Amino acid sequence: MFSSRFPVPRSQLTRYFVFFFFFTWNLELGTWNSFGAQEIRVLIDHIDSKEFPLDVPETGFLVTKENGDVLLNESGALAVSEGLIFNANGDQKLHWRGTPYRGLLEVVKAPDGRLALVNALELEDYLLGVLPSEMDTKTWPMEALKAQAVISRSYAISMIEANPKAVYHVGSRANHQMYFGATYEDDRARQAVEETRGEVIRDDRGAVLAGYFHSCCGGRTEDARQIWSQSASEKLVGVSDFGSCKISPHYAWVTSLPVEELERALVELGFAFDKPIRGFLVGRLTQSSRVVSLKVITNSGRLEVPTDKLRQVLGPNWIRSTRITDIKFKNGRYLIYGRGWGHGVGLCQWGAYSLALKKGWDYQRIVRHYFPKSSLNRM
Ligand SMILES: [Zn+2]
Q1: Bridge partners of residue 285, in order along the sequence
Q2: 318: CA distance to ligand 1 center in Å?
Q3: Are residues 207 and 109 both part of a single domain?
Q4: 188-247 residue pLDDT tens
Q5: CA–CA separation, 221 vs 239, rounded Å?
Q6: Same domain, 232 and 330
Q7: Of 122, 153, 173, at which residue does a domain stop?
């Protein structure tokens, strides 16, 4: 527990104050610090209890408030509140629930009113954590890792630019990019990030394009506008990847969904219907054979259910992608057959793996293939 590390010796406080004011001043500049590096703010966790399992090895850490006050009383007790900022000494990393983090950890009030823990750090340092959380950096080809680095960087920058002053720019789970802090950083992730430093994809007006990606497209990626709203970028277009992601364990799948689970999900989505469900069918398809909506036949009529919404409520373990090829009923369960894993827009990770490994494509060719309406260049 952190309390055993306190109090910070008085002799060290002056040094901390100086450093802290320096950082606060940087915050005023927006998302760039004084060294010209871009900062990203990542939501790590919500804090719902008084328990505050923050720790840093050996040398302790500093707890301050936005005005620079050090928030330690004589006994080292700490009340969790908005505005706390934790900063490790030197190269030390802060730990939250066993996960190490570079940069700062801050307690903020999230838009939903809850207290949240945010990791504020340099963008390129963030990518060191994203890459091994998203790809197997130990065994995957370097060119696939570099393609992921470019796309993850582009995604992060597009999120920052969409709302630079947000209390956080991205989450740390699959709805944004997976990020387990510095847990899995390794030399190959570092190489991929450093050798593509500052490289992003842009649209024809020079704006950084949101680098969407997914695990496996199932043979063809998707137009963002086909499965999201018309406000999605028209530059995010679907392409064939020649079945290169057949190499993926997620290329073809089947899940066995209990009828009760489907009923629960429909209720959660706000559908009113009389049980039992009598049929569950594939509805309208996109060009890449993704299912836009599913038909559910009930005692009180037919429901048309948006597939992506049902996937969100059920979770990706039941509907791994919207590229559903068939649905069959057997012993009180629906057998759902499909291809690929993820939303299908942008980079296909398993396709990148295969194109690098089997065809020898470099990362630039891979990126241009999956984002044909973008240009690749340095910030
Ligand atoms: Zn693919």
Answers
A1: 291
A2: 20
A3: no
A4: 999 999 999 999 999 999 999 999 999 999 999 999 998 887 788 899 999 999 999 999
A5: 5
A6: no
A7: 122
What's the whole-model pTM score? 0.82
Percent of the chain whose pLDDT exceeds 70: 81
Q: Find where tokens 């066993």 sit.
A: 98
Distance 246 CA to ligand 1 centre (A): 7
3-state DSSP helix/strand/coil percent for the chain, to nearest 5? 30, 25, 45
Domain that holds residue 270: 252-339
- Is residue 166 scored above 60 in pLDDT? yes
Q: How many domains does the chain have?
A: 3
Whether residues 172 and 319 fall in one domain: no
CA of 352 to the centre of ligand 1 (A): 8
Q: Is 132 a domain residue?
A: no
CA of 366 to the centre of ligand 1 (A): 11
Q: What is the pLDDT of residue 231?
A: 80
Q: Take residue 27 and report the two structure tokens written for it.
A: 């915050």
Q: Is residue 195 a part of any domain in this protein?
A: yes
- Written as six digits, the tokens of 2 are 């952190």
CA of 215 to the centre of ligand 1 (A): 8
Q: What separation in Å is there between the alpha carbon of 222 and the centre of ligand 1?
A: 10
Provide the pLDDT confidence category of residue 2 given band limits of 50, 70 and 90.
Answer: very low
